[in-house]
Design a protein that fits this description.
Keywords: Coiled coil, DNA-binding, Nucleus, Transcription, Transcription regulation. By secondary structure, this protein is mostly helical. It has 5 helices and no strands.
Length: about 120
């Protein structure tokens, strides 16, 4: 029978580091409990948010330093149900079209009917 490492003379004993892995006890340091990072509350005013309505929500969120989900949540607290970028964009395009297409024209309107 094989003698254990403690029964062998000191010259024949193997240090613990040289023992085969099956015989050596592996002491693995346990990771210490990491402090959970609590999200900080972001408070943005309506004025800060409304300045960015002319941008897509992803771009506005990156400028404000938050993710889009957080920006949406903040908007809902201010009563903004949907990010108004497309509406603002369509209104500005509509305004531009009106300015370009507004050319004073002299139509054949019966002026005497207007003053009657």
């Amino acid at each position: 029978m094989a003698a254990s490492a403690q029964e062998l003379p000191p010259a024949q004993q193997q240090p613990a580091a040289e023992q085969p892995p099956s015989l050596a006890l592996a002491l693995v340091p346990q990771p210490q409990a990491q402090a959970q990072i609590k999200p900080t509350r972001v408070s943005l005013s309506y004025e800060e948010i409304s300045k960015l309505f002319s941008l897509p929500i992803a771009e506005a969120a990156s400028i404000l330093g938050v993710c889009t989900s957080v920006l949406k949540r903040i908007c809902r607290t201010h009563g903004i149900v949907r990010w108004p970028y497309r509406k603002v964009k369509s209104l500005s395009v509509l305004r531009l079209v009106r300015e370009i297409s507004f050319v004073p024209c002299y139509c054949s309107i019966n002026v005497h009917l207007l003053h009657a």
